[in-house]
Amino acid sequence: MTDQRSPGNAFDVAFVGRANIDLTVRVPRRASPGRTTFASSLTASPGGKSLNQAVAAARRGGRCCLIANVGADGWGQQVTAALADEGVDTRHVTLLPDATTGAAIIEVTPDGESHITLALSTATELTADDIRRAVDALDEQAVVVQLDLPPEPVTALLHQRPAPIIIGNLVPYPNLDKTLLRQLDVLVLNQHEAAAILHTTNDDPLTAAAGLQQLGPRVVVVTAGAQGAAYVNSHGSGRVPAPTVPVVDTTGAGDAFLGSLAVDLARHVPLPDALTTAVQVGSAAVQHGGAQSATNE
Predict the structure, then answer these.
(1) Which residue, of 26, 63, 217, 252, is most buried by count of CB atoms within 10 Å of its CB?
(2) In 3D, which of 195, 255, 205 has the Cα closest to residue 231?
């Protein structure tokens, strides 16, 4: 019997989460109640946080794969084709018959801010069995898991610990046992998500990172848009400033940041250096429209 953990199954990073289609319009302003706002033409492009992160990692030269489910529909085919074009391994992207691929409805305002509504496809949500089958077959240095997935697959992954580095992203699912955060090597989230977990209005990223580390992750990184990022680990803490750049569209900037960070951490790049590069990648991303339009750094 062939060993599943063969060299062909070795990756820098495995990304665990969702893939969907981004339905994006640019609007002069968001519509007020009872009013209509005219927008640009609609674009439909592959997206989803885990997909965006995997693409960003591949563009940094990382060998990576995505673990996700999509529908066996036109959108699902578009997603898998885009991943293959970017060099992301899709052996664990499953097209489910009779399921609809999820979508994100994105409005981009003139200041470049993106306002996102996620239309979840419950039929394509990952299960604990999906996680077990995928991670049993893979050999990776790091895993990035979206913590807003249903609690069962997240719990299965954290208990299985399939890689030396486990990176959690986003505010945890409401029913997720927060003691599981102690099993994370790295927690990455933005300042708004950090405030939601800490139940505070303080938006200082360094203060938030210090507070979140008390929940158990060894390393906490809090991104803060134009302010860059802050981190706390066992060696201390620090801030990484962002360059001043023109902002066209913030969609996917955090994903570009995390994809870059995950590749560097998988390759044992020191955290401050990895964060400096990640901030540069995220800053490049906001200068282009769409979640995946940033060029390689």
Answers:
(1) 252
(2) 205
CA 96 – CA 100 distance, rounded (Å): 8
Q: List the 114-119 sheet strands across, edge first.
A: 43-47, 20-26, 103-108, 114-119
CB 95 within 8 A of CB 89: no
Pairing of strands 219-223, 43-47: unpaired
Contact 158, 176 (CB under 8 A): no
Structure tokens given for 125: 């949500």
Tokens of 221: 């990184």
Amino acid at 54: A
How far is C-alpha 202 from the chain's CA centre? 24
Distance CA 109, CA 26 (A): 6
pLDDT in tens, the chain (297 residues): 344 445 578 899 999 999 999 999 999 999 889 999 999 999 999 999 999 999 999 999 999 999 999 999 999 999 999 999 999 999 999 999 999 999 999 999 998 888 899 999 999 999 999 999 998 888 999 999 999 999 999 999 999 988 999 999 987 777 778 888 999 999 999 998 898 888 888 789 999 999 999 999 999 999 998 899 999 999 999 999 999 888 887 778 899 999 999 999 999 999 999 999 999 999 998 887 665 654 344
| Domain spans, the chain | 12-19+49-99+125-285
Cα–Cα dist 270/123, whole Å? 40
Q: Could you tell me which residues are beta bridge partners of residue 65?
A: 14, 89
Selection from 26, 19, 52 nearest residue 293 by Cα: 52
For the domain covering 12-19+49-99+125-285, report its CATH number.
3.40.1190.20
What is the token pair recorded at 207? 């203060």
